[in-house]
Specification:
Argininosuccinate synthetase, chain A, domain 2, 3 domains, 12 helices, five-stranded parallel β-sheet, alpha/beta, Rossmann fold, elongated
């Protein structure tokens, strides 16, 4: 076993990472630095400090990363309209590169020679964290306890915590039947009853949204203002990136928007069933496509749509820091220079309905050309005949050959 002096642990203060902290101390006889990231998970992060102190940690980092998360990770991803396998808005995936980045920064600042995470050996997160670590610091050593220890169940973790005096909340309670991950973009649910893909999730599972059936009977209208592809204001009120997403989550959840029940293909090879709530993201995606519809050139829009599945897969699989994702981002961001204007959406019982869009300076929609009324010569319909014949040329040649053969 490699000798380690100091390890930076991504630490939530929950059962898994509390056990990992003690296990690292005992197994590697090393100093542990804890890092707790606030990416908008909606839970108090300060208790993690008390837990770390109780377990003898001297260097404790608790960072509010909410604005950086939305500004530098969520918004760039939504400029690409990224959706994995046609449905998933990548809520868990997009938080991992930020956490990995900050861990490496802390490792450098504290002189640590290793980093550690609590992701299991079956999931995607181990890949996402570690690809990020290695991309940012190639010689870093990674400790992944779930791939090393024999604590392979919740019961074993609880027994270890009991034996080592590790305080664990809700010891005598079953706790949540789901494995959950939350940040400002989404909340996910996996495990237990959801492991049978034929079973409908129970209504009490959902945390952020009402069911569409219970949503208000009256629709609510919302105006989103875009600058260079990012939302900067809601209903005329300027907001920071994190505040925009927080407000969209509240409005979307109120109207039953953003629920998803998905069987996805994990990067490690297995299929996995998960449920997600992404109310703000669902609104943002629909509105962004609407503003692009009037401000993007046709071929630019179609090229973006062709590239999007590759871009989304790179994020899902953990390649945020890869040169190919970064190259694609430059092109995507260049396409957003003129994506400015407003979009009006109607929120109603699980639906986001675009009802208007406009851009005073950058709209490519020309009423004089598109009108079904007299266009005063803006478009010569006779030109269409030659256009059609030229595009039909290869079809006509092929048809004649078929006729000659027959």
């Amino acid at each position: 076993m490699r000798k380690l002096n100091k390890v930076v642990l991504a630490f939530s203060g929950g059962l898994d990472t509390s056990v990992i902290l003690k296990w690292l101390q005992d197994t590697y006889q090393c100093e542990v630095v804890t890092f707790t990231a606030d990416v908008g998970q909606g839970e108090e992060v300060e208790p993690a400090r008390a837990k770390a102190e109780q377990l003898g940690v001297k260097e404790i980092y608790i960072d509010d990363l909410r604005e950086e998360f939305v500004r530098d990770f969520v918004f760039p991803m939504f400029r690409a309209n990224a959706v994995y396998e046609g449905e998933y808005l990548l809520g868990t995936s997009i938080a991992r590169p930020l956490i990995a980045k900050r861990q490496i920064e802390i490792a450098r600042a504290t002189g640590a020679d290793a980093v550690s995470h609590g992701a299991t050996g079956k999931g995607n997160d181990q890949v996402r964290f570690e690809l990020g670590y290695y991309a940012l610091q190639p010689d870093i050593h990674v400790v992944a306890p779930w791939r090393e220890w024999d604590l392979t169940s919740r019961e074993k973790l609880m027994s270890y915590a009991e034996a080592h005096g590790i305080p664990v909340e809700m010891k005598k309670k079953v706790g949540s039947p789901y494995s959950m991950d939350a940040n400002l973009l989404h909340i996910s649910y996996e495990g237990r009853a959801l492991e049978d893909p034929s079973v409908e999730p129970e209504e009490s599972m959902w945390r952020w949204s009402v069911s569409p059936e219970e949503a208000p009977d009256e629709a609510e209208y919302l105006d989103l203002q875009f600058e260079r592809g990012d939302v900067v204001a809601l209903n005329g009120k300027k907001l920071s990136p994190a505040s925009v997403l927080q407000e969209l989550n509240q409005l979307g959840g109120k109207h039953g928007i953003g629920r998803l029940d998905l069987v996805e293909n994990r990067y490690v090879g297995m299929k996995s069933r998960g449920c997600y709530e992404t109310p703000g993201g669902a609104i943002l995606l629909r509105a962004h496509r609407a503003i692009e519809s009037i401000t993007l050139d046709r071929e630019v829009a179609h090229l973006k749509d062709e590239l999007m599945p590759k871009y989304a897969a790179l994020i899902y699989n953990g390649y945020w820091w890869s040169p190919d994702r970064q190259m694609m981002q430059v092109m995507i961001d260049a396409s957003q220079v003129n994506v400015n204007g407003w979009v009006r959406v109607k929120l109603y019982k699980g639906n986001v309905i675009v009802v208007g869009r406009g851009s005073q300076a950058d709209s490519l929609f020309d009423t004089n050309v598109a009108t079904f009324e007299d266009d005063a010569g803006a478009y010569d319909q006779m030109d269409a005949a030659g256009f059609i014949k030229l595009n039909a040329l290869r079809l006509r040649i092929a048809a004649k050959k078929d006729k000659d053969r027959g």
